[in-house]
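Retry 2 of 3 after timeout on previous attempt. Resubmitting structure tokens to design endpoint.
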């Protein structure tokens, strides 16, 4: 059945459900409502499957390795080129940062907000400059950071950035007929920081990209790169939100990002002692709240996947957001945008619904255990035992208490039932 027909059926059923909500609650009405809700859920499941198959992508393993690709190089410079003298290849490069997707496989989550802002601003200046040795004056770096900062504080940021980059897992991978070779190189072949005495104010910073990683920022081919507005990235608050922003931008054409769980924790540099509750509360919730302010992440949602034999263990995390419009004309792009917004809202609603159903099931199980602890309980008054709880049973999410009356010497009676609302 066509997507639009399914959506129309779902909409009609929801209207009927709302009308039934206005009627007095009787067993017949409640039964009708349950039947309609079941039909809505089935239609929703079908729609979700169609949406996911439509947006299906190959889920790439994110490994912290960088495969070498040939990039034309020139003899290394010995005389630095001032940042202000760099020639920008396209006007877009003045506002956008563009780099090879492989850079997203490296753990840069340990960078602070300010360090991340500076690193990607430097990437922007290094793009298509080959192995040029570039000198950044304090005023250059301040403009790149878009903040008012003292030279002394700026020197602290630069030094901390260098310390973090030194420990990042940048690897070069090459292959022969008989082996795979992994070599670790520094991202920058040269990083020189000069400070004034005695104030330790920053005098200048010199950077040169290592030849092994020239391909990360030079001669990028179609489908190989991640690109986003640098100023928008710098305005994102929170180190977790910043890293997630970059990862999502790589998949803006599909609207789906799937990451293996342990790799996700590593890329965001989530503390090892954080359990799932802490990750939800202090990482995901805060990051999504920040990213919801930005298009196309207004309806960003996530779902934890359990794909191993142990269904209690999370193996992957999937993020869903609006797919960028693909239409050629302005009208087609607007229609695509509206459709993408509707699709992602539906996915977000379904993820929320599944979470509510899971929590509801868990709550019912806990309540059933609590009630069953009453089995065998005796209720008495000065004249002796007047009531005994013989059993607790559950029928259609309702709990029934089977009781006996010893003084009457009668069979146990299903004399009281407890609905979810009464508990």
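Retry 2 succeeded. Sequence:
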């Amino acid at each position: 059945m066509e997507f639009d027909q399914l959506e129309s059926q779902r909409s009609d059923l929801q209207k009927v459900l709302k009308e039934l909500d206005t009627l007095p609650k009787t067993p017949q009405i409640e039964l009708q409502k349950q039947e309609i809700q079941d039909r809505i859920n089935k239609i929703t499941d079908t729609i979700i499957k169609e949406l996911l198959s439509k947006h299906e992508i190959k889920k790439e393993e994110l490994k912290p390795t960088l495969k070498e690709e040939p990039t034309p190089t020139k003899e290394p410079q010995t005389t630095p080129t001032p940042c202000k003298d760099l020639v920008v290849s396209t006007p877009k490069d003045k506002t956008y940062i563009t780099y090879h997707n492989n850079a997203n496989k490296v753990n840069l989550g340990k960078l602070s907000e300010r360090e991340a802002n500076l690193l990607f601003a430097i990437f922007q200046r290094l793009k298509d400059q080959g192995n040029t040795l570039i000198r950044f004056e304090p005023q250059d770096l301040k403009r790149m950071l878009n903040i008012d900062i003292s030279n002394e504080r700026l020197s602290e940021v630069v030094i901390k950035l260098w310390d973090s980059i030194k420990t990042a897992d940048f690897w070069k991978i090459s292959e022969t007929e008989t082996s795979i070779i992994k070599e670790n190189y520094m991202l920058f072949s040269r990083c020189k920081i000069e400070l004034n005495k005695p104030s330790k104010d920053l005098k200048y910073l010199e950077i040169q990209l290592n030849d092994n990683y020239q391909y990360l920022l030079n001669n990028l081919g179609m489908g190989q790169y991640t690109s986003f507005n640098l100023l928008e990235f710098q305005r994102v608050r929170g180190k977790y939100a910043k890293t997630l922003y970059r990862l999502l931008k790589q998949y803006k054409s599909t609207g789906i990002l799937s990451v293996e769980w342990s790799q996700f924790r590593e890329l965001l540099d989530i503390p090892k002692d954080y359990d799932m509750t802490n990750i939800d509360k202090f990482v995901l919730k805060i990051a999504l709240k920040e990213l919801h302010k930005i298009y196309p992440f207004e309806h960003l949602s996530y779902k934890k996947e359990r794909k191993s034999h142990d269904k209690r263990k999370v193996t992957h995390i999937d993020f869903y957001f609006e797919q960028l419009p693909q239409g050629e004309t302005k009208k087609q792009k607007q229609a695509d945008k509206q459709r993408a917004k509707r699709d992602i809202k539906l996915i977000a609603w379904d993820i929320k619904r599944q979470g509510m159903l899971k929590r509801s099931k868990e709550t019912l199980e806990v309540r059933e255990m609590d009630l069953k602890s009453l089995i065998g309980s005796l209720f008495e008054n000065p004249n002796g035992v007047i009531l005994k709880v013989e059993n607790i049973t559950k029928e259609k999410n309702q709990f029934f208490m089977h009781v006996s009356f010893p003084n009457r010497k009668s069979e146990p009676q299903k004399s009281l039932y407890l609905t979810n609302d009464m508990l």
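Attempt log closed. The first strand starts at residue 66 and ends at 67.
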